[in-house]
Design a protein that fits this description.
The protein is mainly α. The protein has helices at 2-29, 34-42, 48-55, 61-73, 87-122, 127-141, 144-158, 174-208, 211-218, 223-261, 266-275, 279-307, 309-313. It has a domain at 87-275: Orthogonal Bundle (MetI-like fold), CATH 1.10.3720.10. The chain is built from 13 helices and no strands. The longest helix has 39 residues, at 223-261.
Length: 314
Amino acid sequence: MSTYILRRLGLAFVTLLFVVGMAFSVLRIMPGSAAEMMVTDQGYAEDVDRLRDKLGLSDPVYVQFWDWSSRLGRGDLGESLYTGRPITEEFADRFPVSLRLGVMMMSIGWIVGVPLGMLAAVKRGSIIDELTRSTAVLFMALPTFWIATMFLIFPSIWFGWAPPLRYGPFMDDPIASTKHLLWPAILGGLPISAGILRVTRTLMLEVLRQDYMRTAQAKGLGQRVVLYRHGLRNAAPPLVTIMGLQVGTLFTGTVILEQIFGIPGMGRFAIEAAVRRDYPVIQALLLVSATLILVANLVVDIAYGYLDPRIRLG
């Protein structure tokens, strides 16, 4: 197992170096002059040369990379051109909000998707199976931004009701803050649950045909024990992989939901940075989000090795 973990850590390190290189190149591979656009559109400096000096773009590329990576090693991501605050402080304020929303979305997706997927597999061919699969396809086909927008429009027209759109800090009022995140979490969690439902159903249909499942039933074990202890346990490794892949989709999903519901998280910060041409923030967001996805997939790879010994021997 230690060899397997070391091999995965080595691959993750190589990938991280590639991510660092891509993040460094954001300001330097864009067509046109990024500094000129920032001066012209936002007035971040009196002239382009001053802004280039401020961003360190006037130095040779190798000097720029050394200075940037040195600051990065100290945890310094630079300053936001728009707010003037260190980017690490901006992230410290916004990341917990996005993390809470993402965890709530994932929890809803798995709590709803796994049991319904198992139920659809057990009731294969029944009206329950057809209904759950059709609903899953519907939620997978509908864009999240459309579902969220319709959720805001139609209840306000028909019932005169709208979800809360003014976010309050969690420490000031935990209940109100959680209520604000609840509806976006449900709307973002349902498409996640749809994908999990279909995968769980497919995996359970394969597991239910195995000999050890019939043996467990022949021993007189209850159906719930057979399904969860023997069936779900053997279907778990692919589901763990799906969980790791969903980390990336969570970031893109929260971008849309945070903007629609006025949630001051990382996703909304990314949109604001793009609109304001705050390229140091965009650079930092690219680096942090890619690193989080990399770490999540590394954890999933290691967990997969523990769940399925055949993987670490491959």
